[in-house]
Specification:
Elements lengths: L5 H11 L2 E8 L11 E8 L2 H14 L3 E4 L5 E3 L4 E7 L7 E4 L2 E5 L4 H10 L2 E2 L11 H7 L2 E2 L2 E2 L4 E8 L3 E6 L18 E8 L1 E2 L2 H18 L19 H7 L6 E2 L2 E3 L7 E3 L5 H19 L8 E3 L10 H7 L10
Parallel strand pairs: 2-5, 3-5, 4-18
Antiparallel strand pairs: 1-2, 6-7, 7-13, 8-14, 9-10, 11-12, 11-13, 15-16, 16-17
The protein binds flavin-adenine dinucleotide.
The site of flavin-adenine dinucleotide has 31 residues, from β3, α4, β9 and β13.
Length: about 325
Amino acid sequence: MSRIDFARIAADLRRLNGGTVHEQEPMGRHTSYRIGGPARVLVEAASEDGVVRTLEWLKDRGIPFLILGQGTNVLVSDQGVEAVVLSTVHGLKDVAIRGGTMDAGSGVLLTKLSHLAARAGLGGFEFAISIPGTLGGALVMNAGAHGSAMVEVVRSVRVWDPLTGVRTIPATEAEFEYRQSRFQHTPWIALAAMIELYPRDPDEIRDAMHRFMAHRKSTQPVGAQSAGSVFKNPSPLYAGRLIEEIGAKGWRVGDAEVSRVHANFILNLGQAKANDVLGLMRRIRCAVYQRYHVILRPEVRWIGPGEGGASATWENLWYEEGTGLTEPCE
Ligand SMILES: Cc1cc2nc3c(=O)[nH]c(=O)nc-3n(C[C@H](O)[C@H](O)[C@H](O)COP(=O)(O)OP(=O)(O)OC[C@H]3O[C@@H](n4cnc5c(N)ncnc54)[C@H](O)[C@@H]3O)c2cc1C
């Protein structure tokens, strides 16, 4: 039994009116993996104002919370989430294009932003056409593809900071690196971002977007239930290649399977549990370490119990299981 009275919190949040409030909401409905036990409370934020009001309210009461975009880069525990999950994908959808810049809310999908940029004759955002998820999730992950990444186009981010409230930070403060940003270890919430692009012929933009989509279709299991690449590339190597070389394509635990198309994708074949995906990740991680002495770091973000509380990080998880960061094999 939870010590926190989530039923009461849900009732209070309904009165606060920051968005639609659900109780015991299956997280599988909100993730591309279609995996995850229930969130005690999930709020579908209606607007930026609703998000900020809800965040301030939760902070003042010390109630654990976490933010979810489209759930395309997370693996949620089968036990669910002992926290209030705040989903941005239904609100925070404003977009304004002025000259060469796009101001967009963090709940806007990257694919939508790519199309809007193309229509406005703005280049630089073509790479994002093939990346699922929201702008907010892309900022947190410094998402990228086809040789480009968010770091190249983001000029500033409007954040909610529990210490100072809402403020705008220059992109440099977000400390973007390969699939990494300050958002991953700072309790900041991305509300919106300013993206700077350049004038480009709309036909050229669309050609580039078509090429990127075609490339994706020929190299990835498009349409399958996954969270994209499970491990980060251990530069200068490619995780997918290492995993393929150990013969892991087709490995299976329960209903989770290493994709036969792209070895860095683990698929939910239908009824997979988070533990099945974790089981495969452990097996892969150990086999790659034994063969190459390379430690694969997860790109997908773990949401579930662990040392860090409701939103334990992968590092917490490995640590908790006694494997330690330098001991990838149990
Ligand atoms: C088929 C497939 C292909 C993919 N291909 C790529 C690819 O080519 N390149 C790539 O980089 N990624 C790829 N991904 C991963 C994923 O699409 C990106 O990481 C995406 O940016 C995640 O966005 P999201 O809205 O789904 O984030 P979520 O999965 O909802 O969240 C990701 C993390 O960000 C946090 N978060 C979300 N929104 C906010 C916010 N507003 N403020 C603060 N924290 C927030 C969450 O708490 C979580 O820790 C792929 C995924 C799939 C399923």
